Known about the structure:
The complex is a heterodimer of chains A (about 375) and B (about 300). Chain A has about 375 residues and is an alpha/beta fold. Chain A has helices spanning about 1-25, 40-60, 80-95, 105-115, 145-160, 175-190, 210-220, 230-240, 255-265, 285-295, 305-320, 325-335, and strands spanning about 30-35, 70-75, 100, 120-125, 140, 165-170, 195-200, 220-225, 245-250, 270-275, 335-340, 340-345, 355-360, 365-370. In chain A, helix 5 (about 145-160) crosses helix 6 (about 175-190), helix 8 (about 230-240) runs parallel beside helix 9 and helix 11 packs across helix 12. The longest helix of chain A is centred in the first third of the chain and has 26 residues, at about 1-25. In chain B, the strands form 2 sheets. A two-stranded antiparallel ribbon of chain B has the order 1-4. Chain B has a two-stranded antiparallel sheet with strand order 2-3. The chains are: A alpha/beta (about 375), B mainly alpha (about 300). The interface between A and B is large, with 39 and 43 residues.
Amino acid sequence: MKNKKHLSRLFVALALSGATSFSLAADTIKIAFAGPATGPLTQYGDMQFNGSKMAVEQINKAGGVDGKQLEGIVYDDACDPKQAVAVANKVVNNEIKFVIGHFCSSATQPAADVYNDEGILMITPSSTNPAITERGYKLVFRTIGLDSDQGPTAANFIADHVKPKNVAIIHDKQQYGEGLATAVKQTLEKRGVKVGMFTAINPGDKDFSSLIAQLKKENPDIVYFGGYHPELGLLLRQSRERGLNVQFMGPEGTGNTALSAIAGAASEGLYVTLPPPYDQDPRNKTLADAFKAANRDPSGPFVFTAYAAVQALAQAIGKVGEDPEEVAEYLHQNSFDTPIGKLAFDAKGDPKDFKFVVYTWHQDGSKTEIK
Amino acid sequence: MSEIYHFFQQLINGLTVGSTYALIAIGYTMVYGIIGMINFAHGDVYMVGSYVAFIAIVGLSMLGLDALPILMAGALIASIVVTSAYGYSIERIAYRPLRNSNRLIPLISAIGMSIFLQNYVMLAQGSGSKAIPNPIPGEFVIGDSAMNGVIVSYIQIVIFSVTFLAMLGLTLFISRSRLGRACRACAEDLKMANLLGIDTNAIISLTFVIGAALAAVAAVLIGMQYGVITPNIGFLAGIKAFTAAVLGGIGSIPGAMLGGLLLGIAEAFGADLFGDQYKDVVAFSLLILVLLFRPSGILGRPEVEKV
């Protein structure tokens, strides 16, 4: 008898706890924000998180989606492919259906496999490697342009503005950097520009003295670097110290104030391809001010793409409910008014008509557009 | 750039990198020589050294003491003192209690220490990169111009001379001083040295302190040369220095110096011949080759089985 009483109490407790967790789940729509919150690329993760958090806060303030509040949860993948898979599995276990992220292409790629298998919808606001959307996954989207656009933009700029006799291309052997470097090389060669040197460095390396000696021997008019800012910063600084006066150019993964902190005066005059300056667009003035009022920097290249990703996702959930398959269907078929312009996805999940812009970087971390 | 300048430039590049490997390698080789243990946390001790130097430089600049000699000396002294304290405490906490256990156990403890130090610095200082300014920018140019000539930067000269002085000091200390003699006795036979009245625990602590102090010197020099530190720099630096120590013959101090320099030069020329991404491949191939023909390293003594 006594035992039975205990059992029934246990059942009541179980039922209650089940009920509470159910009601919590019904109140909010959880969205995972995946990206680097630690590691050398944290700054980019912050841009992404700032944009998505801002979008979630504003949507919640305006009443949420279908009367439900959005809840953003940050997951740290440190831009490491192994950790990204662990994060993806954690997202699965926590029964979250939507992901904004990841940041690094090499982390997004393996995580996307998990999400697609488990029926989770993923929108990356920052991974630019073309391969991510080339595997026929229905639930994978992105709100940023591809390296196959960014590379040619950079290459055409080099061919038209720099008019070099000889170009050197260096990459960091990672999916993002190598993909870009290859795209730049192919376009340059198509345009008849000589690529005299195409080589790689090890990510995380500190000493580029040997590479710089080789660059001096090759004597190119411009060096294109496919990779991220920690390596390019060191390369710029050491080049300056060693009297190698050559123009450098990098992709949006290098356009970061930390680059100037590392390279100092040597970062002055670097060419960088970046998404357009959404925060300086007059249409986005109120939003940019809202960012500043919340003590968040609106100027990074991934802030507004992350904001737009959340916005499009929320709009789609509001229309068709929380089933990822139906949300994906809706995202594919409709276009969305976002701060990054009219956002529509093609059959692969890539944004239609995404443009990159070439800037000159300054040593104080600011930049000016080259028209 | 003409071939001969190019050759000498790569040689100097290799020697600079090699000097710093050598400084870190001493810590591995001395500890191995005395207690036969590989201190895998040594790379992270180096990392701690670079953060202490960073904090010292920022602190001194904030106090307005930003004159060049004060900055360099301040960073060096602070880093040596604090990092030595780390070296001592690590031995006291993580290794001494395990002194008489199976050889593998302190090794695991060392790996744990390494993970602890990395995460501790990540928590305390953030995981992003920190920039250290180069206090003595500028360089000598040998040849026609910067583009066609050999460039030796001031900081490289500082690295060579400080490394040389540190090595000289260490060699004199080991071969001439009383404590150095005790160190050699411990390396020869720890138990016998103890029986003859040498405080072996103190000597082992001393080895850790010397290793940590030299790692701190390397940390300050490398930090100023490259300008960027992150909490995970210890791993690669540790692996390279360990390779240098094994290459030269682990347990032998001149071996660590030679191994470091050789490894640096191999990397510079390997990068030149096969591309920068293959420099580690070249360095480790060299290690395998040397070990195939001389299993105890270049200057190492063949292991004598102790009874």
